[in-house]
Specification:
Layout lengths: L1 H9 L19 H16 L2 H51 L3 H9 L7 H16 L5 H21 L4 H15 L3 H22 L4 H15 L3 H10 L8 H14 L5 H13 L3 H12 L6 H20 L1
Helix pairs in contact: 1-3, 3-4, 3-5, 4-5, 5-6, 5-7, 6-7, 7-8, 8-9, 9-11, 11-12, 12-13, 12-14, 13-14
GO cellular component, one term: mitochondrion
Subunit structure: Interacts with microtubules.
Protein name: Regulator of microtubule dynamics protein 1
Length: 317
């Protein structure tokens, strides 16, 4: 009640007071409503208890509105801070990825494995897979990480089907899991893998990595051993298939989008030309792969393979 009285004393008086509620001024019902307003006003003013209750109700309503405003503003601030926090984490993650800090990146993103953010989840899938690929990772740990990566990629895709990266990493992780589930599962998953790579390219035609991976898909089925092809024919009415020419087209397209973006793309251009018996162009691309500045363990392995293939040229000539 004391609060109500303080609010009452703070209200402006005289001509500066805020106007009362506006009443309808139309012909019908105008007089009756004005009379009703005066009677209710007189009733309240003539009854101190009713007047105090009315004033207290008004004060509480005012406080309720103020509380709602404070809560609403706090919610906006919290949501803004949350968005800023996610963006900050993504910046840190991308910096660590570009710096080749695989373990630090995994440690950072593992803190947010329960996140609902697709951008965080597909990066966590990538980080899990990268840890699995390290030479120091045991076979048991590798298997766990491969399945873990698939789960993160799947969740990322569920959260945002318009994310080209989620489609790309989901396809990559399905492919990795195939190594543990046998030839039948691997061939069955091939259609799904191709579908998600194609969707990733559709969503982002400038992503050289997705284009390169589609090239690998084609190369893999072009060089499929005869016994695997026979199994595929027995299991599926129309087994997946491709050609070296198709693979070459994707590798060149990736190179056009982002020249020298990946040592393996250079290596596979050389190997595909070898399959097509074009030694001159094979030597050109293998030399580029051998001379590629190594930033990762994979780059070093590719340099070695390219040098060995080039040495094979020299021995035959």
């Amino acid at each position: 009640m004391a609060l109500a009285l303080r609010l009452w004393r703070s209200l402006p008086l005289g001509r500066s007071a805020a106007p009362g509620p506006r009443l309808p001024t139309g012909a019908a019902g105008s007089r009756e409503q004005c009379v009703l307003w005066r009677l209710r006003g007189a009733e309240v003013m003539g009854n101190p208890g009713a007047f105090k209750r009315s004033l207290l109700f008004s004060a509480l309503s005012y406080l309720g509105f103020e509380t709602y405003q404070v809560i609403s503003q706090a919610a906006v601030v919290h949501a803004t801070a949350k968005v800023f926090r996610v963006e900050e984490i993504l910046e840190q993650a991308d910096y660590l990825y570009e710096s080749g800090e695989t373990e630090k990146l995994y440690q950072l993103l593992s803190q947010y494995k329960e996140s609902e953010d697709a951008e965080l989840l597909w990066r966590l899938a990538r980080a899990s897979r990268d840890i699995a690929q390290l030479s120091g990772t045991s076979e048991e740990e590798k298997k766990l990480l491969v399945y873990e990566a698939l789960e993160y990629a799947k969740r990322a895709l569920e959260k945002n089907e318009s994310s080209f990266a989620a489609h790309k990493w989901y396809a990559i992780c399905i492919s990795d899991v195939g190594d543990y589930e046998g030839i039948r599962a691997k061939i069955a998953n091939a259609y799904k893998i191709k579908e998600h790579f194609e969707k990733a390219i559709e969503l982002n035609p400038k992503d050289a990595t997705a284009i390169h991976l589609m090239g690998i898909w084609c190369y893999t089925f072009a060089e499929m051993p005869w016994y695997q092809r026979r199994i595929a024919e027995m299991l599926f009415a129309t087994p997946p298939s491709s050609t070296y020419e198709e693979a070459l087209g994707y590798f060149h397209r990736a190179e056009q989008v982002d020249p020298n973006f990946y040592s393996k793309n250079l290596l596979l251009l050389g190997k595909t030309y070898l399959k097509l018996h074009n030694k001159k162009l094979a030597a050109f691309w293998l030399s580029k792969a051998k001379d590629y500045a190594a930033h990762t363990e994979e780059d070093k392995q590719i340099q070695t393979e390219a040098a060995q293939l080039l040495t094979g040229f020299s021995d035959k000539n």
